[in-house]
């Protein structure tokens, strides 16, 4: 079973249990079915993106899947307000982002290594051979290692910008800060990353001599 299938299966099971609970029954059956359909569509459309966000922080497949399931459980509990959400993608990323940061703070540990095979699974596969995907995953693991060395504020905006391709406005919404703060943090993060990558490249070249 793939990662996305595991997430969908987990959410489906939770949703079924939720619907069998009479205390959670909606007043209107048609509205309930419409909300169920909207939730199913959201799981199908956004689970992969949310998994990438969760995995980029937690670096563990099971933990990332659990975080995404928890995010959708929270949505399920408040599904009557889905129609009020203007941008479901940003809203869901904000939910899963807060979940993974809370889990990371409680764990108080940072993984020492990255699972390159799992990184290969979460990267886009269009037009890439197996060898190219493996090489891309190794590069991604190297970049993540450099990202880990950034200060927390700069690390957060860079991850959301580079890995999830969120705009400054969207990142500001996810993190609850101003757009100008996002831009200044991104500027610092990119300068620091350039220095870290340049240092790593020079170190690698010296080691080959």
Name the shape in a single word.
elongated
Radius of gyration: 19 Å
* CATH topology (fold) name of one domain: Rna Polymerase Sigma Factor, Chain: A
What is the rounded distance between the termini? 45 Å
Structural features, described:
The chain has a domain at 1-111: Orthogonal Bundle (Rna Polymerase Sigma Factor, Chain: A), CATH 1.10.1740. The chain is built from 9 helices and no strands. It has helices spanning 3-20, 29-58, 61-77, 88-107, 116-122, 130-147, 152-163, 168-175, 179-207. The protein is elongated. The model has no long low-confidence stretch (mean pLDDT 75).
Topology:
Elements: H1 3-20, H2 29-58, H3 61-77, H4 88-107, H5 116-122, H6 130-147, H7 152-163, H8 168-175, H9 179-207
Key features of this structure:
mainly alpha, single chain, 0% strand, 9 helices, 209 residues, elongated, Rna Polymerase Sigma Factor, Chain: A, 76% helix
Compact description:
The chain is built from 9 helices and no strands. The chain has 209 residues and is mainly α.
């Amino acid at each position: 079973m793939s990662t996305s299938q595991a997430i969908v299966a987990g959410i489906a099971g939770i949703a079924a249990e939720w619907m069998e609970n009479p205390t959670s029954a909606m007043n209107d059956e048609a509205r309930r079915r419409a909300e169920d359909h909207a939730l199913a569509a959201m799981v199908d459309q956004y689970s992969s993106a949310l998994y990438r966000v969760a995995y980029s922080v937690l670096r563990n497949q099971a933990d990332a899947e659990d975080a995404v399931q928890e995010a959708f459980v929270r949505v399920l509990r408040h599904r009557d307000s889905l129609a009020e959400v203007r941008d479901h993608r940003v809203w869901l990323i904000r939910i899963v982002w807060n979940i993974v940061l809370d889990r990371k703070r409680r764990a108080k540990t940072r993984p020492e290594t990255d699972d390159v095979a799992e990184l290969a699974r979460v990267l886009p596969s269009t037009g890439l051979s197996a060898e190219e995907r493996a090489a891309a995953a190794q590069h991604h693991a190297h970049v993540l290692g450099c990202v880990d060395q950034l200060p927390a504020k700069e690390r957060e905006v860079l991850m959301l910008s580079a890995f999830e391709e969120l705009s400054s406005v969207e990142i500001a919404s996810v993190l609850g800060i101003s757009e100008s703060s996002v831009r200044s943090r991104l500027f610092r993060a990119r300068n620091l990353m350039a220095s870290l990558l340049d240092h790593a490249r020079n170190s690698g070249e010296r080691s080959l001599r």
